[in-house]
Amino acid sequence: MMALTLFLIITLTFFLMHAIPGGPFTSEKMLAPEIEAALNAKYGLDKPIWQQYLSYLQGILTFDLGPSFKYPGVRVNDLIREGLPVTAQTGFLAMLCVVALGIPLGIVAALNQNKWQDTTIMAVATMGVAIPSYVLATIALYLFALQWNLVPTFGLDDWRGYILPVAALSGFWLSFIARLSRSSLLEVLGQDYMVTARAKGLHPQTILFKHGMRNALIPIVTVLGPVVANLLTGSFVIEQIFALPGIGRHFVLSISNRDYTTIMGITIFYAAFLMLMILIVDLLYMVLDPRIKLAEKS
Amino acid sequence: MDQHKMTIPADKWAPIDRGAQDAEFIAAPSLTYWQDVRQRLWRNRPAMASLAFIIFLILAAIFGPMMTHHTYYDQDLKLSNIPPIFEVYQTSPEDGEPQYVFLNSGNFKLYEVNEGGEILGLLRAKRKDLMKKQHIYAFGEEELRVDYSQLPATLVDGDGNPATSLGLKWNQTNWFGTDSLGRDVLVRQLYGARISLTVAFVAALVNFFIGVFYGGVAGYFGGNVDNVMMRIVEIISTIPLTLYVILMMVVFQSGFLSIIIAIGSVFWVDMARIVRGQMLSLKNQDYVAAAKTMGASTKRILTRHLLPNTMGPILVTLTLLIPSAIFIESFMSFIGLGVSVPMASWGTLTAEAVETLRAYPHQLFFPAAAISLTMFAFNFLGDGLRDALDPRLRK
């Protein structure tokens, strides 16, 4: 199933990119026709499209995403390898923030329903959901980096450089998860088995974590897959605003450069990565809820 | 017992209050589901405030640009980067009318204004003292100097004393100031609102038609049809929508129409899923079986019986998808894939403001506030609608 999806995505991206009028070497600078023909021959663009497609597929099977059209001598693999550590670091930290802060905040809000803790957390979370990440990022950049000089404006040279990008990247999903865990836990708290657990005289913490959270986590885990996806796409602007040399930045640059192989390669890389994440989420599901079996799904 | 009862004096007995019988009486008129929803929504303050804001925004976006002589593309480089609020200074010549000026501390230029705050033009410096970091302006006999040896720049008179300030004035020519090319920010904001609202409207419309149709067909027919259709949806939703929209924008070249095509062509997936889920649970209800028994056609069952009952979740999904469509558009514009220049969208306005963030931080304020408030409004409205449509919350 996943291989099929990935194959369809590759095919779709390939033909979309080749449907664009004008080759990759058509630019303002008029190239001599011989040079253009030579370039086309070098990158295999003179062959019929199905042959290009087959050789591209063949490349992907051996984890080779082909050369970049805009940077001579650079391969898409190099761009990804170069950008991945940066994107992975910020993305992982942001994910950590989302899970390690969002869920506890939601629990605190749910346990103190309609008290000041709940109102404050929900007010902040509503703001976090409404303000777009790039707005949050620029305002934070202006206040903390330009006005008060608390953190560097760009780069990841020391730990303070991570604060703003990670905060801006995780802001929306942190708020979203906090809201979701609050409502999910509130629903679970109202269930009969929670009353039963209390009636049995179980320790309140056992009730909350073993009976309450385990059930409340199911809808949260469902969105974690998409969260990873959105942290990835969110990194496009965040990396641009804070000038971080990650994959997102390469992707945006390749779009404005019309570097089709890079666009294609990074898209496919993202898709493969996401499918891996979705698989992990599915496995997590089974751990949380033994009633769910993967075999039944398919 | 009987004897005991007889001992109660007769005057202690009184007829029962008739009011108790009224408890059975239904005082409030019975409400249909939608009347109930409307009432609950009406009582939800944040949702109503949001609705009012959205209506105001729509009116402003439609009529605002007609009411001003500014256009979104007219440039005036002499009057660039003017702030919306400035401090007005008065010159005091010995003879004749006093002149009013203000200093743009971002570019150290002096502009002439009238008393009300309308901008008359850029003043030319008599000479520039680069050693002392001063620009010297002459007003008849009098001199005013822009001193930028220390930031922020200040306005001093010939002897170095601070000039007479008349306090802060609101810019009457360009209410929101001008951008780096001297274009009126307010009008560009309103055009940005037009684009965002159009995107929202189109996304909602496309969502509604494609999503409801697709989900409805898949859910109603079930079986293999459902299997195949949902597989397609699953494949589409594996890639994040943002990535799709970016690919589309690359293929179609950036521009307003491409944004609409891109958003319209992938955004219906969530809607289709929700409608399908609803359909699956509703189609086995007895009233559908009853309608079938009476010989109603598939079309009639779908449009008359099933669709009205899925309307609630559809509406909520719509109001919550609108902010994400608006966000995607501004996100695209922000990374340079959105509307093409000189068109303005909230995303491009924010991106332009980021470029001049150091010198003119106020330029970030209006687009950031506009997009955030709009997202707030649609989110609150969606939340309010969801609460109003949920009969479990009925009091």
| Structural category of chain B | alpha+beta
Number of structurally distinct domains of chain B: 2
Mean pLDDT of chain B: 78
CATH class of the largest domain in chain A: Mainly Alpha
Radius of gyration of chain A: 24 Å
Low-confidence spans of chain A: pLDDT under 50, at least 5 residues? Answer: none
What profile does the largest beta sheet of chain B have? Answer: 5 strands, antiparallel
SSE string of chain B, helix = H, strand = E? HHHEEEEEEEEEHHHHHHHHH
Report the strand count of chain A.
0
CATH class of the largest domain in chain B: Mainly Alpha
Separation of the first and last Cα atoms of chain A: 9 Å
The CATH superfamily of the largest domain in chain A turns out to be MetI-like
Second CATH tier, the architecture of the largest domain in chain B: Orthogonal Bundle
Poorly predicted runs of 5 or more residues of chain B: none
Which sequence of strands runs across the widest sheet of chain B?
A: 4-3-2-1-9
Strand percentage of chain A: under 5%
Bulk shape of chain A: flat
Structural descriptors:
A: about 300 residues; mainly alpha; MetI-like fold; 2 domains; 12 helices; B: about 400 residues; four-stranded antiparallel beta sheet; 9 strands; about 55% helix; transmembrane helix (chain B); MetI-like_sf (chain B); OppC_N (chain B); transport (chain B)
How would you describe the overall organization of this protein?
The complex is a heterodimer of chains A (298) and B (395). Helices cover 76% and strands 0% of the residues of chain A. With 298 residues, chain A is mainly alpha-helical. Chain B folds into two domains: 86-170, no CATH class; 185-393, Orthogonal Bundle (MetI-like fold). Chain B has helices spanning 2-6, 33-43, 45-63, 185-221, 223-238, 241-252, 256-266, 269-282, 286-293, 298-334, 346-355, 362-389; strands at 85-90, 100-104, 109-113, 119-122, 127-129, 134-139, 142-147, 154-157, 165-170. Chain B has a five-stranded antiparallel beta sheet with strand order 4-3-2-1-9, with no helix packed on it. The mean pLDDT of chain B is 78. The A-B interface holds A 5, 8-9, 13, 16-17, 19-20, 126-127, 129-132, 134-135, 138-139, 141-142, 146, 226, 229-230, 232-233, 236-237, 240-241, 252, 255-256, 258, 263, 267, 270-271, 274-275, 278 and B 234-235, 238-240, 242-243, 246-247, 249-251, 323, 327, 330-331, 334-337, 347, 350, 353-354, 357-358, 361, 364, 368, 371-372, 375-376, 379-380. Chain B: This is Oligopeptide transport system permease protein.
